[in-house]
Amino acid sequence: MRTLSPEITIIGGGLAGAEAAWQAARAGVSVRLYEMRPTKETPVHRSGLLAELVCSNSLKSNLLTNASGLLKAEMRLLDSLIIACGDEQRVPAGEALAVDRERFAECVTKRLESHPNITIVREEVTEIPKDGVTIIASGPLTSPALSAAVAEITGGEYLYFYDAVAPTITLESIDQSKVFKASRYGKGEAAYLNCPMNETEYNAFYDALVAAERAPTSELEPLKLFEGCMPVEEMASRGRQTLTFGPMKPVGLDDPRTGRWPFAVVQLRQENADGTLWGLVGFQTRLKWPEQERVFRMIPGLENAEFVRFGVMHRNTYIKSPELLAPTMQMRDGSGFPVPGSGAAADLSLDPTPDTRHLEPTPYHLFFAGQITGVEGYVESAATGMVAGLNAARLIKGQEPIIFPVETMIGSLTNYISTPQTTDFQPMNANFGILPKPEQRIRNKRDRQAAQVETATEAIRRLTSSLSVG
Question: Bigger pLDDT: 39 or 289?
Fold first, then answer.
């Protein structure tokens, strides 16, 4: 058996790459982490810090009754770097874990820089290393050169979808006399600034929003949007009342001036520890920047809003993981190519016809992690990085890889992206629907989810004990 290089190469210093590096280093393996920023920029990043958040500053709910909360609880038990820094740099957001963007990224960067097993290299990787163990965690904004290299290895083209970012404004530019602070139904601290609208104000805003000019996308491909991060203007185009059941729903928000729910509400969430920056919740957009100023200043309280970051849309790429990856996040035959004859290296379509080409195994071991695998969300990306990092380290140490129990949220996600689908493969968030149902039928949804949480937590505790990491 060939001896592997004792060092893991990780390409990409986002959430997944950072988590993978941390887990592998904690397991006693040397890591070389490549990040092209700030030498080469992307359309949406603003700094050279590792694990920079480019969309929302929220890591979603902390409640165990929420799938994202369960996922974070599992990761805490496995000493996740991303969740630890998130907890340390938390800003008020009710039941959600929202963070100060810059301090969070600084926390992750400093911990990785100070770890004796990690070397950070600031340069673009354009080719996949030809030997050793490699984790590709380059994210949805993978550079064109690396994209071509991955496409060559996987034997086909990427899938893709378009993602959008919401704008950020300054606190001092908000008219405090027109907004009120509250969290929905009073859950957690009063953490959100709420901009209430009456029906007349809403209708005027709606008409301006759907008529506003949008930034163009490539004419060479259709605009494929992910439902979980739909631009607000695209959502509004589905019907006049759509937003009042989505990001502008007023339920559970009593306006202290009227004692009633408004007709519609725009919520703002704190984005930094000092509370000087606030983001428009659910207002991802691809409107042109002057249009964002014009339309969003129609929101009560935001008439003089100062925009420090405008919403933008960018193209995300991901591989068809069910045809390529094992639940360990490793290419299926463990050598860098799928099993010959599996059809996985054909054209990445769902055509079941086997690929009859003979593929010679290559000498390197390849893993993928993060959004490029088809998971959607900050925490979900970090979770796949955790799995890839742990298993890459075990591979180097001559240990069997870990397949996380499907009863866990981590295991259900890796199972989803590694199981051949019968319909079009789409990005997936953590959700209770991908967990197996309890053996005994439980009719009540809340009780059923509580049973799933108990099973998942116990499974992770057993796994943590067997790993003996730390």
Answer: 289
Q: What is the pLDDT of residue 335?
A: 46
Measured torsion, CA atoms of residues 456, 461, 463, 468, in degrees rounded to the nearest 10: 160
Please report the pLDDT score of residue 428 as a whole number: 79
Domain spans in the chain, listed from the N-terminal domain onward: 7-160+317-467, 168-311
What would the CATH number be for the domain defined by 7-160+317-467? Answer: 3.50.50.60
Cis link prior to 247 (omega < 30° from 0)?
no
Listed residue (332, 326, 434, 421) closest to 380, CA to CA = 434
* Long-range residue pairs from 59-62, CB within 8 A, at least 24 positions apart, any chain: 59/83, 59/86, 59/96, 59/97, 59/98, 59/99, 59/378, 59/379, 60/96, 60/97, 60/377, 60/378, 60/379, 61/95, 61/96, 61/97, 62/95, 62/96, 62/97
Longest dimension (CA), the chain: 74
Average the pLDDT over each of 244-248, 427-431, 449-453 and give the range with the smallest value.
Answer: 427-431
Would you place residue 358 in the very low, low, confident or very high pLDDT band (cuts 50, 70, 90)?
very low
**What pLDDT, on a 0 to 100 scale, did the predictor assign at position 277?**
84
The pLDDT of residue 121: 96
pLDDT at 226: 56
Neighbours of 290 (CB within 10 A): 11
| Burial class (CB within 10 angstroms; exposed 0-12, middle 13-18, buried 19+) of 201 | middle
Residue 467 region by backbone torsions, left for phi larger than 0, else alpha for psi between -120 and 50, else beta? alpha
Pairing of strands 132-136, 159-164: unpaired
Q: Which of 233-237, 399-403, 417-421, 458-462 has the lowest mean pLDDT?
A: 417-421
Closest by CA position to 153, among listed 182, 122, 128: 128
Question: Taking all residues of the chain, what is their mean pLDDT, rounded to a whole number?
Answer: 84
CA atoms within 13 A on the CB side of 80: 29
Length of the chain: 470
Q: Give per-residue burial for 303-321: e unless 16+ CB within 10 Å, then b.
A: eebebebbbbbbbbbbbbb
Tell me the CATH number of domain 168-311, given options 2.60.120.260, 2.40.30.260, 2.30.42.10, 3.30.530.20: 2.40.30.260
Residue 465: its H or E element? helix 445-467
By C-alpha distance, which of 82, 88, 54, 55 is closest to 68? Answer: 82
